[in-house]
Amino acid sequence: MYLGNALVSSFNCLSSEELQAAERYFLTAFIYQFGIGEWAQTSLDRLAGKLGVSERLARHSIGVLVDQGLLDARRVEGRTGRPSYDYRLSKLVADRLNLQVGPVSVGHEGLVKSLLSIPSPGGLEVTRKKGRTFGPPNPDALSVGSKLVLIVLLTEADSCGVVRNCSTFGLAKQVGMSVQRVRRHLRKLWRLGYMRDVVAGIVSDIGIGKCPSIYFLNLAHPIFEASWCGRAFVLHIQKKDQYHPGREIPQLIRILSNGCEDDSYVAIEYDRRNYLLPVKCEDDVAKRLKDAVLDGLEEYLQAVLDDYVGQILTDRYLFIGSQFLPEPSINLRLEMEALLCVKERKGSDEAASRAAMFLSGWIWRAACMKSEVLSKKLGVMRLLMPPDGRISILRSTENGKLLILKAVVAPPPGRNVTPGIYQGASIDYVKSTKEINRVDLSTKEQYEIGLLVKPSVKTKKEVVDTEVGIEDEG
Questions:
Q1: DSSP code of residue 276
Q2: How many Å is the maximal CA-CA distance in the chain?
Q3: What is the DSSP string of 15-82?
Q4: By residue range, what is the domain housing residue 474?
Q5: Is the pLDDT of residue 95 over 80?
Q6: Does residue 170 have a pLDDT over 60?
């Protein structure tokens, strides 16, 4: 029984005043270990060992959970000495979980279980001397708080590990922490390689309103290796001419800044060399977009563009039996309008509304056309796509290359595909893994994909960049 979606819904019903992060983590680990109705018939120290927490944390959490009516306690009769108790979930929690548990298409339960199985010694570098534990804090150890944040993100993530519409404030409420503490844990998870990327949310005055951050989890992290379940990563890199540098969004903004005509539409196209052709839009909209890079809009729009390209490619390659869907089933335009707050909002002016409409229209057209270009290069996707799969396009962080596709897919059960990086050998339908070329990557490229984890020692500039990326979330 998958409990991830039920746990998140239950967490939303518990205020931070009722349960702090330590108790929420203990409750999560307890549910995954003993299920909904089983009694934990063991001593406190052994229970703490099974759940991978300290005896002190277990004793404190049990006291709070019993007082809150979330755990039932039953005294063990016939024993001498200090009273001993068995524990199980209360009927209140069991009923709530039973209502929320249901079929889900995201298969991260194995990753959550593997994460819970890692002991959480409070971040200590264990050194034993005469039976006692000493040691300085280990900056690379996952504390209970960091693990809880990662567990909630895993339960919110799609099959490619992408988490959308999850604000820092909402995440803090779910895990029972302050927003500042959640941001510290997010930076730690990014530094230790559990997140590939974070696209900071923004609040913009050009009509898109408030957009939450987008998190790209690293499902290929070595800690998850035993629960890999056949996930594969598909990498396709297409270089562009050096005389036309920059990524897509900066190109668009430069084109808008250099000259616009008074037209109410925008057309984005790719030629055979795969770079943007000139576009047209309203002059006042272009003026508002000139300094968009300074507002963080470039990074967010690039992430949104690639996200919707992934949705279109997913629907294009998704198959029912042996039939591929001829047209995307998603209503991309409506989704874009909802995301970019196109509908009239209180306090928004006419130009801001036109800017939002322009952005939604541009993203929609660009995503459709970009997917057309990429679909001709990705025959390998048809082999690796499961019936309930998802393609995720990870944004490029390199200049000088326009189309950099880092797509994550999960192969169907039973497919014997070695985890790694693959590149399609043919544009046509790929019938077997023998027709796929496994790509040998450099250490840097392996890290970018997530097969290697970044060292814990970072430069001062990198630390600053990470803080800005998360602190600026809207």
A1: B
A2: 88
A3: -TTT--HHHHHHHHHHHHHHTTT--B-S-HHHHHHHHTS-HHHHHHHHHHHHHTTSEEEEEPTT--SS
A4: 108-120+139-228+454-474
A5: no
A6: yes
